[in-house]
């Protein structure tokens, strides 16, 4: 934080003497007005209060493991950091950077048997429960935590959750340990002061300060993205460390940074405590997180898709595929439906639906509102368990033109052909996969603009399933006369999705 020198501003107010008969206006000087000096915020009491509960996490793993925070470095900026760390170690007698093999007395390199990584964690109860990031410890063979006073303790992994990147460790101690508690991230305001504590580059406990730069950040890491953004310096090794408010409560877990160099540029991201606290509680109790499952593959509703389905808005989640033996299938949900509400609460998009269902306990009954064939409909589903999610068979389609006899030219920039036995074998398509083959896509065509590729399988036009190129041609021709975008269901690599192509573009 930059220390701003206080300035003393002196204001002198003078009146002007007016010359007029029988009128004298005295000249006077107002006392100097002194602006209050700006006070630099002091974090020393806060740091002294919370740092004893923050620990360094050191992980050993099998060589070649790519998880963890500081396993390897590459690139020109990282090479500079490696050289800095080497000089630092030589000057101050500190161990070399984690993850780097140290030399032998004879100058030869020691064989590297174990990879190493460093991160940060924080203790949340006196019995030694520690929260950190899943990516720090997910591939660990052994974990050691170092307390602020230098005490080293072996730790065991109680459980981890890859989807939220959270993990819970446990250490045993013969005395109660210092700990911190979670705060209310819902009350966090943009601009408020925060303090991060961590283990950057393995240097040990380090305090940095800043403000909350933004809330609700989506960095495209998964369906649970809801990060707090901060400009407090966060670097490699800070992962899993706490972000504190001024009351010493943990409002976030520092997890990621945006940086072209690997070092902090003031764009750090923390998992909010509102998301972390219930996950940590489940990991502590059972080692896993129970999440509800509906059993659908969903995609956003674009403007074109909404228009093709006669939806009034782009809200909701379009069901691209319903998994076999899933709660959605049992409830009668079909591919092409748009889920618009859950238990009467409107669904704005796919992330809201994912979070809402995931937060439900398996076995819960839920009322789904959805749009089908221009009508509002409802169904009741019994939420399943994500642990028992059905596996989806993956097929291979590399986007290259596939040999097919007599492809039929089409509007919208695609050529279609039947799925021959040879094509099915070449693409490793299951017998259950129905439709027609996209043999080629014209560059620059409407189909190309929507991401269609040779090797895709066209399964549906509007609400009609397609079983031949001729049928596809007829349905596309019919759809074009409506003047609305035509909705196509596409299968690719074991997944399905819908695209809508405007006839005006075509």
Structure in words:
By secondary structure, the chain is α+β, with helices and mostly antiparallel strands. The protein is 17% helix and 30% strand. The protein has helices spanning 44-50, 76-92, 134-137, 273-286, 303-308, 327-331, 350-358, 421-426, 446-449, 469-481; strands at 54-62, 114-123, 129-132, 140-146, 152-161, 166-170, 193-198, 206-217, 227-230, 242-244, 250-257, 268-272, 292-293, 296-300, 317-322, 338-342, 345-346, 365-372, 375-382, 384-385, 408-409, 414-417, 436-441, 457-461, 464-465, 486-492, 495-501. Strands 21, 22, 23, 24, 25, 26 and 27 form a seven-stranded antiparallel beta sheet that branches. The longest helix has 17 residues, at 76-92. It starts with 43 loop residues before the first helix and ends in a 5-residue tail after the last strand. The relative contact order is 0.08. The model is unreliable at 1-30, 70-81, 91-105 and 389-406 (pLDDT under 50).
Secondary-structure map:
Layout: H1 44-50, E1 54-62, H2 76-92, E2 114-123, E3 129-132, H3 134-137, E4 140-146, E5 152-161, E6 166-170, E7 193-198, E8 206-217, E9 227-230, E10 242-244, E11 250-257, E12 268-272, H4 273-286, E13 292-293, E14 296-300, H5 303-308, E15 317-322, H6 327-331, E16 338-342, E17 345-346, H7 350-358, E18 365-372, E19 375-382, E20 384-385, E21 408-409, E22 414-417, H8 421-426, E23 436-441, H9 446-449, E24 457-461, E25 464-465, H10 469-481, E26 486-492, E27 495-501
